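Appendix B, record 7
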Amino acid sequence: MIEIRPFATLGGRDHGWLKARHHFSFGDYHDPARMGWGRLRVWNDDEIKPGNGFAPHGHRDMEIVTYIREGAITHRDNMGNEGRTEAGDVQIMSAGTGVVHSEYNHEPGVTKLFQIWILPDRKGVAPGYEERAFSEADKRGRLRLVASPDGADGSVSMHQDARVYAGLFDGEEHAEHALAPGRRAWVHVARGAVRVNGEALSEGDAAAIEDEASIVIDGGKGAEVLLFDLP
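Structure tokens (predicted):
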């Protein structure tokens, strides 16, 4: 089963400094039919104006993945971590027993990013932070593992049996991902256009997938794709 979630159907709000679109219920946007997908709880498509960002605020018991589409974001937290994550790169914060952080766009242009929350496999873990750079060559014509439970293949690690892949596809480039029985997947087009199991998706669209043996990505036109393999 593949359910396409077109970008045009998303809820959201323009805060002036922030344009946010929500695939799942978040903040003052509530849709009881869209409360998450497997252990995936939040997927926000954010655009942040220069000199703006999220002031220090707290989280607990959540795995928070940030994927930068354009520009860069600067992270600071009360664990002493500070980092600048650029387009195509990944950061993950395990909120665990509690963490306070800020995320600001100190770049000259708009920063576009995905803010993604995944429910952890257990509560009360020690909080942590990682960031990792992935080049275009790493992702060209394949699904490159960028986040996993054990940090495999140089990916960032999370407290959940979930695996995150990123890929770039054009023309004849394609990839296939086997989906084990009982697992779900979420495929999201960060830019361009692509086919997912024959279904056409454009920038900002997503596909919620279950009861499929495999996921085939092809027909890319300047496509950047994220695939989440979820319990």
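Remarks on this record: The chain has a mean pLDDT of 97. The radius of gyration is 17 Å.
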